[in-house]
Specification:
The protein is built from 17 helices and no strands. It has helices spanning about 1-20, 30-70, 70-85, 95-105, 110-125, 135-145, 155-165, 175-195, 200-225, 225-255, 260-295, 295-310, 320-325, 330-345, 350-360, 365-375, 385-409. It is about 80% helix and about 0% strand. By secondary structure, the protein is mainly alpha-helical.
Length: about 400
């Protein structure tokens, strides 16, 4: 699947480039596409370089967390759910702890902390994988849930909206939470249908019900706050929780008479090795995305879509926000750029500006996460991971559009 998608980016870009060269007389198009290969190759390396320090630190902390016993404690709470969703993973396997930490960091909007934890989980799941080149069922489920994970505090989006002059940068808070929860449920249902996981089993259903009530309660609480208070409290809560975890890991390790420093160094070395391994996978994916974007294929498709919808008298205002939707599964930085560009062109408080913000927060960057996580363990065959991940993206983006019309049209 990845092979087909990767080749398609280049082939579609080439055909689009030929069209622009011979029919539109754009003599610079192939120069732009070639330059994209250089610039995105550099970007991929810079991303990996930037991740190196983060990976070293958080993999070091994860190693301390393992030795302290706190990760085992977190895992115990979710063990009944995870063992039913991933029956091929032993009940007390350390991968469960890493997955819990990863999902918790995602919910708090701490992307930098979530990535190394997710990579650690993928590496631990790989030890159980009988076919090292092909993703296992548990790895696919974890990746899809990760790429569609609920983010309770989308502070980055609020910051961009404030910079672009939004009257109330947090007015998209509730719509984002609804959309991202829809994408998470869709991803879980998609994987469950392929892997024949029974979601209506009492234990799984009770967890899903509890999570739904928790999110509803958080939504209710934060929706009652003023904009400045909401931002202050959500930022404080997120950072307090993550730093408290670091201190608890250290104190727990000291109680068990673990050499904290040496344990950290041991984990940090693994982080460095992982950062180096990721580079070729990121280069492959980001260059393909950059060429596809530089060719103008995305803009061409949007114009065709707008013209087609007009024929049926369908409101086309949402089309102005679709560049963010199309870039979201491909590139996180590209999607953010599209969101900012939409707000710049149409205004942060315009329908398109708000909708692009909701779309940005509705789901994760599927192909980036897939390239990093699977690349970190050398998986070449993604099986149904791409299809299920993109289905979750589709539902999340569709929900974002519907909610955007409900709240702001």
């Amino acid at each position: 699947m990845l092979n087909i998608i990767w080749l398609s980016f280049f082939l579609i870009a080439f055909v689009t480039g030929l069209y622009r060269l011979f029919y539109l007389g754009d003599n610079e198009i192939f120069n732009q596409m070639t330059m994209a290969t250089f610039s995105l190759s550099k970007t991929a390396f810079e991303i990996s370089l930037g991740l190196t320090g983060v990976l070293c630190f958080w993999m070091g902390m994860m190693k301390i967390g393992e030795k302290s016993g706190f990760i085992a404690l977190f895992t115990r709470f979710l063990a009944p759910l995870l063992t039913r969703l991933m029956p091929d993973v032993p009940r007390n396997h350390p991968a469960f702890g890493s997955m819990v930490m990863n999902l918790s960091a995602n919910m708090l909007g701490l992307d930098n902390a979530a990535t190394p934890m997710g990579i650690r989980a993928m590496q631990q799941l790989q030890t159980l994988n009988p076919n090292k080149d092909s993703a296992s069922n548990s790895q696919i489920l974890f990746l899809v849930i990760n790429t569609s994970a609920v983010t309770l505090f989308p502070l980055t989006i609020f910051t961009y909206r404030a910079q672009m002059g939004a009257t109330d940068p947090t007015d998209v808070f509730i719509p984002i939470l609804i959309a991202t929860y829809a994408s998470t449920l869709a991803g879980l249902i998609a994987v469950a249908s392929v892997q024949r996981i029974r979601l209506f089993e009492p234990v799984i259903l009770s967890y899903l019900t509890g999570f739904t009530l928790l999110i509803a309660g958080i939504l209710f609480y934060f929706s009652q706050l003023e904009q400045s208070v909401m931002q202050q409290q959500s930022a404080l809560l997120s950072n307090f929780i993550i730093f408290s975890l670091i201190i608890m890991f250290m104190l727990g390790a000291l109680k068990k008479k673990v050499d904290v420093y040496e344990t950290f160094i041991e984990g940090a070395k693994e982080g460095f090795k992982t950062a180096v391994m990721i580079i070729p996978y990121l280069v492959a994916m980001l260059v393909a995305i950059g060429v596809f974007r530089a060719s103008g294929a995305l803009d061409f498709f949007l114009q065709i879509l707008r013209n087609g919808l007009t024929q049926f008298s369908i409101d086309t205002r949402f089309v102005d926000a679709l560049p963010t939707a199309f870039m979201k599964p491909l590139s996180g930085s590209g999607a953010r750029a599209m969101m900012v560009e939409t707000m710049r062109l149409h205004g942060a408080d315009s329908f398109a500006g708000r909708l692009s913000s909701i779309i940005q927060g509705s789901t994760e960057t599927t192909f980036y996460v897939l390239a990093v996580y699977f690349g970190s363990v050398g998986i070449k065959k993604a099986r149904h991971a791409v299809a299920c991940g993109l289905f979750a993206d589709l539902i999340g983006i569709s929900a974002a559009i519907l909610i955007g019309y409900l709240f702001f049209a």
